[in-house]
């Protein structure tokens, strides 16, 4: 299984897409909005997989016609990284029936339910989180709802040979103070704080199901 990693950009203070529409909304989505039923979701994914397979077939045929290497895995990587239509995780979630309310619209009682729905929804898309235990429920939900799911990404449906992992460890907890730093650790970007653990969440987060047949290229 191929895994990719996406790290939220530490310096970004605003969502990763163009500013939201100024059109007024009529209602705030209810926290914990339930997704469509499994069959309906699978129909949406299978339509996208079929379109992906057809596009990959075209890339393979084009490579052969031009005398270039025509391995299907290479064509799949090119499609997934360069040719697939653009989208956002928010749009992908909406397509399967999951709406993500703004964090300020949620009470402390609602935020945990909304966070679980969001995490489970991302897992349906083949997207998994790591490094979240230094964020409380509202802090993690805010990072996901205002930054991660707004990022422009390629619209690649879940499939058996690829999973995406988003490392949240670089996200600074809301209202973080120096006494919240557990230790300093080095990485490729220099020295960064390792925040104290405020949740026991990572060990229970969804992970890819092994051996499941989900539309390989």
Biggest sheet strand line-up: 1-5-3
Could you tell me the number of beta strands? Answer: 7
Class of secondary structure makeup: alpha/beta
End-to-end distance, in Å? Answer: 12 Å
Describe the structure.
By secondary structure, the chain is an alpha/beta fold. The chain has helices at residues 38-65, 72-83, 89-95, 108-124, 137-146; strands spanning 2-6, 86-88, 127-130, 152-154, 162-167, 181-187, 190-195. The strands form 3 sheets. A 3-stranded parallel sheet has the order 1-5-3. A hairpin with a 2-residue loop joins strand 6 and strand 7. It is elongated, with a radius of gyration of 19 Å.
Write a brief structural summary.
The protein is an alpha/beta fold.
Write the layout of secondary structure elements.
Blueprint: E1 2-6, H1 38-65, H2 72-83, E2 86-88, H3 89-95, H4 108-124, E3 127-130, H5 137-146, E4 152-154, E5 162-167, E6 181-187, E7 190-195
Parallel strand pairs: 1-5, 3-5
Antiparallel strand pairs: 2-4, 6-7
Helix pairs in contact: 1-2, 4-5
